[in-house]
Design a protein that fits this description.
With 126 residues, the protein is mainly α. The protein has one domain: Rna Polymerase Sigma Factor, Chain: A. It contains 6 helices and no strands. It is globular and about 40 Å long.
Length: 126
């Protein structure tokens, strides 16, 4: 799923409530699904999604639309990784993953735009 150029253009107008509602409707379930598939703690998922959306609203003026497909998703992925890390730090929890540090390793791979998991994010999570 590509984010439409018209939606990105509409989001430039901070008062366009319908565009922001559409963004939340499109991406919140996808973020939840991604977080579930990557072993995020169930109690943290809604908080992380809300934090991601808060950061997107606050930092959207800094987002530079690129001619390449997937630029918004890559930007969103970076925000999601950082919000998930912050959530774990705030709650002073270790990620709950089988094998100990597997979840942290997945997050590190996700932060790398050239890793296989990032390619999955860009192409198959949607």
């Amino acid at each position: 799923m590509d984010t439409s150029a018209s939606l990105l253009d509409s989001l430039r107008d901070e008062s366009d409530e319908e565009a922001w509602r559409r963004l939340v409707t499109l991406y919140s379930p996808l973020l939840r699904n991604w977080l579930l598939r990557h072993n995020a703690h169930m109690g943290d998922i809604d908080d992380v999604v809300q934090e991601v959306m808060t950061v997107v609203v606050r930092r959207f003026p800094e987002f530079q639309r690129q001619p390449r497909t997937g630029a918004f998703r890559a930007w969103l992925r970076t925000i999601t990784v950082n919000c998930l890390r912050d959530q774990w730090r705030r709650s002073n929890k270790q990620p709950k993953a089988i094998g100990g540090s597997d979840c942290i390793e997945v997050i590190e791979q996700l932060a790398d735009p050239h890793s296989g998991i990032s390619k999955l994010w860009d192409h198959k999570c949607w």
